[in-house]
Design goal:
Strand order of the largest sheet: 3-2-1-4
Radius of gyration: 12 Å
Mean pLDDT: 96
Strand content: 25-35%
Largest sheet: 4 strands, parallel
Low-confidence stretches: none
Number of strands: 4
Number of helices: 4
Structural class: alpha/beta
Order of helices and strands: EHEHEHHE
Helix content: 25-40%
Length: 86
């Protein structure tokens, strides 16, 4: 198992998330276990959006309600599967 996860907290930033995921997927991800997207209950279908990338590196955690930015940026630390997160 790799030791690094990349965490991306997001809320209603589809275009920016799209750009960031595309940039990451073009990189060598052999040392990366997962790219963890923490969605703060955006108003679009984030699940289908993430699935459209067809990558086993992407993992989505969607909050059932908007928990606020400060709390949402902490969730990747709690949800990551690895020893380190960036």
């Amino acid at each position: 198992m790799n030791k690094l996860s990349i965490g991306i907290p997001t809320f209603n930033r589809r275009n920016r998330l799209n750009n960031q995921i595309n940039r990451l997927l073009k990189q060598d991800l052999s040392e990366i276990e997962e790219i963890l997207i923490i969605d703060n209950n955006s108003d679009y279908d984030v699940h289908n959006f993430i699935n459209s990338f067809n990558s086993n590196k992407l993992r989505l955690v969607k909050n059932p309600i908007n928990i606020g930015m400060s709390t949402n940026v902490q969730i990747p630390i709690l949800e990551c599967k690895t020893e380190w997160i960036w």
